[in-house]
Amino acid sequence: MIKEKLQLLPHLPGCYLMKNNKGTIIYVGKAKDLKKRVVTYFNREHTGKTKALVENIVDFEYIVTKTEEEALILELNLIKKHNPKYNIMLRDDKTYPYIELTNEQYPRLLVVRDHLRRKKNSRLFGPYPNAYAARKIVNMLNRIYPLRKCRTIPSKECLYYHIKQCAGYCIHKIDNKTIKNMTDEIIKFLKGNEDGLIKSIESEMYKASDNLNFERASEMKALLDDIAVISKKQLIDLNDSVDRDVFGYASDNNYIAIQVFHIRSGKLVERDSTLYPLLDLDEEALTYYICSFYDSNNLKPKEILVPDIINSKLVSDVLGIKTITPQRGKKRQLLDMAMKNARIGLDEKVELENRNEERNYKASRALGELLSIDNLSRVEIFDNSHLFGTFSVSGMVVFIDGKPAKREYRKFKITSDKADDFNLMKEVIYRRYHRVLMEKLEAPDLIVVDGGKIQIEAASRMLDMLEMDIPICGLKKNEKHKTKALLYKGKEIPIDPHSSVFHLLERMQNEVHNFTIRYHKDIRSKGALESVLDNIAGVGEKRKKALLKKFGSLNKIKEASVEELSAILPRRVAEEIVIFFQKQ
């Protein structure tokens, strides 16, 4: 079906929506030419995340727009609506802190994140990389300028008044001129002009020193040191007062690294660095990122600088921000610097991944050498879990060349009434490797059971029955339930706790344990829910399944109204459920 639909795609701008076998939208993209763009997903080889995306595409649909600008706006809205698995999503909670100078009669300095909720006419400065950096500046300014600290004016003076960090607005009438002088100086400093403040503090420091008030002089010196540290971050001065953001990028076949430099009052104050799997053309990925960046609670500057690949007019029209690609001068130097930093970030990521891959590969080979298994690659690890013989489950995780292969993980709900360790292991090993034989799946080079002689014996019997020859080893634990040795062919092989083999086995043990425990808890909670529902008149197996599918948990069923329950059940039964939980 996809092949036929590809032939019918128009050479027009628009958005495309990729779907998986459940009809769920897993990726949304936009294109100047839908046919040229969508066809590239299916007529070439891909790697990494793009390969995983394409393997999951079963169908697609598209929406034609008049212009590329309309397509970009539609793409942003569709991604927000459907939250597709493979799209680059800016986390809603990733909002940067700002410093707010309130416009109250007696102003306050605050650290805020949601700038959209700020008070009318208040002044915002930032963004800052984290709340700590913003609070450090606010605390320093509060030590210099005695602004109001309390949210509401108290009936008597507070601690800040006594330590000279508040002018005592609750007990003194402070004239507007004094307040304006303070706020003007604060605004100058936060906009990057710290010279006036430095001169004022230096004058106060020398005056205190001349009067032998060394404690006061020391306080002023500490403030100067703080200002020096804060000012150091402002590395580039463009000799203007324009707020602008600069976007640089670097990419390879798998990732795109993006750097955002925040220029405030002409000075570089902070940067934002991100790295995502690359699933689209560089131009499309970066354009989407830029537009999403300002849709994610970040203040829009007066100007943004973008690389040559970006259609600056398109971005400018969508965001309503002056967007340019500088060709020379300080702005070009700044853009080049952002591009260089993005390349460094990407190179570091690739190098770390390569080193990690090499380390994992060597650890896997070292484990093979320890057990005399040539070219050890695929390892399947098993663990069992039950509660006093009930809710019995098993989990299997897979490591290939020392790395978890999460798509290969499997869960097993045990069907046998005999829930001891021996019989649990027999069932899961038989089921797994009978299927491997029947479906001609890839067999592992090694089986690891999270247990000792009992589990190894059970696994060996089942493999013998299936006439399969796969090496099996067990993990022997210490009193803290940590792996200390391997059990293999009747021998105990001690493992150096500082070796790469030990760390690999530890990761395997933790991975299979956590995977199995999560499944066990899920089965237990569903079992508990079903047992409670068994006590309600009119709720049989079909209705239990419908409730589980709709609400997912007992608490959500308890909280549901008669109307919500009636959407899937007869009203009489819905009322019975509500009454049942009200009595408990």
Describe this structure in words.
This protein is of the alpha+beta class and 584 residues long. It contains 19 helices and 19 strands. The protein folds into five domains: 81 residues, 3-Layer(aba) Sandwich (GIY-YIG endonuclease), CATH 3.40.1440; 135 residues, no CATH class; 99 residues, archaeoglobus fulgidus dsm 4304 fold; 147 residues, 2-Layer Sandwich (Nucleotidyltransferase, domain 5); 50 residues, 5' to 3' exonuclease, C-terminal subdomain (DNA polymerase, domain 1). The chain is 46% helix and 19% strand. The longest helix is centred in the middle third of the chain and has 42 residues. The two termini are 54 Å apart. 30% of the residues are buried.
What is the highest CATH level, the class of the largest domain? Alpha Beta
**Which blocks of ≥5 consecutive residues have pLDDT under 50?**
89-93
Strand content: 15-25%
Helix content: 40-55%
Question: What is the overall silhouette?
Answer: globular
Quick check: average pLDDT?
82
Keywords:
alpha+beta, 5-stranded mixed β-sheet, 19 helices, globular, archaeoglobus fulgidus dsm 4304 fold, 584 residues, 5 domains, 8-stranded mixed β-sheet, GIY-YIG endonuclease
What's the quick description here?
By secondary structure, the protein is an alpha+beta fold. The protein has helices at about 1-10, 35-40, 50-55, 70-80, 130-145, 160, 175-190, 195-210, 215-230, 280-295, 310-320, 330-370, 420-440, 455-465, 500-535, 540-550, 555-560, 560-565, 570-584; strands at about 15-20, 25-30, 60-65, 100, 110, 125, 245-250, 255-265, 265-275, 305, 320-325, 380-385, 390-400, 405, 410-415, 445-450, 470-475, 485-490, 490-495.
